[in-house]
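Input:
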Amino acid sequence: EPEVTQTPSHQVTQMGQEVILRCVPISNHLYFYWYRQILGQKVEFLVSFYNNEISEKSEIFDDQFSVERPDGSNFTLKIRSTKLEDSAMYFCASSEQLSDTQYFGPGTRLTVL
Amino acid sequence: GQNIDQPTEMTATEGAIVQINCTYQTSGFNGLFWYQQHAGEAPTFLSYNVLDGLEEKGRFSSFLSRSKGYSYLLLKELQMKDSASYLCAVRRLGDYKLSFGAGTTVTVRA
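Output:
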């Protein structure tokens, strides 16, 4: 069964450094998402991406964040200058159509020191 | 915004049934999802309701009442591996995102 994959599984970085989190959505899916989950808290929406542009973003997704689909398979989330409070699990998700189920990848645990 | 409420924790015995309730307040409701999340892992899809009524999928069933802003997830014949967090998520018409509740941690005891 096709799955969303994410790399790396765990990233440790220093405050102020840039990080890029990578995702490969399910191949026939058209809608891509990033969510995050701070330890012990609920899953929070960051951004959605469709037709090579951001379709919706939350207030968390400020100028420090950006997303890109650099080729036909990868979908990336960049955090330009990481803060301590960016430490969280970051999940990529994809869906075939807007109204369809979103399938989540295994996540990248980001630790900012 | 949306208010999505679920109980924080529930405990049940192996082989028993547990019902996890979710209430929500939103305009333009366009679907409710249940996901299972084991500690440190990704949410995995369990069920989806957009119309009123019961959806059954093996040991798991989900119910929706749109007029009451209420859903429940029913887990039957509980197994130890069902110990996890169960997340209720709502989508609004025109939104791309899912809005999640805080999750209900279910502990299954032998």
